[in-house]
Structure formats: structure tokens, C-alpha cells
Amino acid sequence: MEKNISIIIPAYNEESRIEKTLDGLKDIKLINQIILVDDGSSDKTYELASKYEFVKAYKLPKNMGKGYALNYGLSKALEKSDIIGFLDADLKETSREVEKLIIPILTEDIDVTIAKFPKAKRKGGFGLVKKLARYGVKYLTGEDIQSSLSGQRVFKKQVLMEFEKIPFGYGVEVGMTIDILRKGYKIKEVEVNMTHNETGRNLKGFIHRGKQFMHILLILISRILKR
Questions:
Q1: Which of the ends of the chain has fewer CB neighbours closer than 10 A, N or C?
Q2: Is the pLDDT confidence value at 227 over 90?
Q3: Any idea where the Glycosyltransferase 2-like domain is (predicted)?
Q4: For residue 53, how many other CB atoms are within 10 A of its CB?
């Protein structure tokens, strides 16, 4: 039986990259629909995405955050979709690698796939956020998931139905990974050649990673308390 596959892309001020990201997806025949949720951008992200006939673009009236945008996209996708993927808007042409995430869901006994990116080309932080996420997931589930921070994921519909809504904040991916594993679903990390807009070793980058660290720490504490 053929599966209906949807991809949800939350986007905020991505006019310089969104066209290339969508171009990378246009020839993937496995995908039935692409839902782009513009999270209150102040640039032309929505206008550029709306030009693509194969994209259903929606614009939120103000910036609500990635979690809200994903939930909005899910409200449009869940009814008719069997498989749903999340992709970031800044992948550019490497978005085409999502096909590698879809295939194991179709051909193997796998419920969720997570993109495992190549090593970053430039130095970012000191690896503290990644280590916290990786070892936190392992401590709470026994599974060694190296890419639990990755937002590039594909799910069987029934997995997403376990959640009333996608959690908000920078710890969303880590929290979902823990919850999915605890419910007995199978996750597979898939190596991809994706690239995205990396944060460097500057003040903005360190502030971002500091927020990530605290959000993930709070998520881990909340999951420990639920044990």
C-alpha cells in the first residue's frame, strides 16, 4: 500500500536560503506534500515559498517559535499523512538528502529516523551541548543516540499521535527522543550529507548554545522526575 508522505518546514527569515531548500525537494517522488510554516518572518520567506506549486505555505501573524510552527504544520498534515518529516529551512540543496530518512521507514522495521550530519566544517562550541544531550538520552533510555539534537527527522504517523503537541524550546528534539524510546519505538540514525547554517565561536553563538544547554538540562531533569 502506497504511503502518503508529508514534509513540514518551519521557517523564520530564511529568504536567502528557502528557495534552494525547496529546489532540493521538488524532484523527490516519494513526497506527496510539503507544508511550509512561516513563523512571522519580516523578510520575503513566505512570498518566495508561495511561488512553488508543490508547497502549501502558511504565514503566522508573529514569531511564535519553532515548536509552535511545527505544531501548526502538524495540524495540517496529520489527517491525510502516513509518514511525516521535519526539515529545517536552511538546508539549501542538501534538503534532497531527506530521501535517505524516508526509505528506512518504508522498508525496515523502523518508526523514526534521525539525520546524522557530517562533522562541522568550522568550530562552533566545545561540544558540551552535544555531550549533555547524548549522555542524557543514554542515561534515561539506555540507547546511545549521537544525533539527538538533530531536527531533521521522519516519523510514522502513530509516533506523532503519542504527543498532544510537539514540545517547545531548544530541548524539543532531546525530549522527543527520550519519550519515543521510552514508549518502545525504534529509532535509526541515518548518515546524510546535509549542511545548515552553523553558529560560530562568537557572542551570538555562545548565547545560543547557553540557552540550548539550559533548555536541555531542564528537559532531562523533567524526564528524570518522571521515571
A1: N
A2: no
A3: 6-132
A4: 6
Residue with cell 548554545: 209
Nearest C-alpha neighbor of 34 from the set 69, 1, 7: 7
Residue 56 and residue 76 in contact, taking contact as beta carbons nearer than 8 Å: yes
Whole-number Å distance between alpha carbons of 130 and 119: 12
For the cut 70, the answer to whether the pLDDT of residue 201 exceeds it is no
Q: How many CB atoms lie within 10 A of CB 11?
A: 28
Apex 36 CA angle, 147 and 55, nearest 5: 120
Return the pLDDT at 171.
78
What CATH number is associated with residue 29? Answer: 3.90.550.10
In 99-184, where do the E strands start and end? 112-116, 153-156
Number of domains in the chain: 1
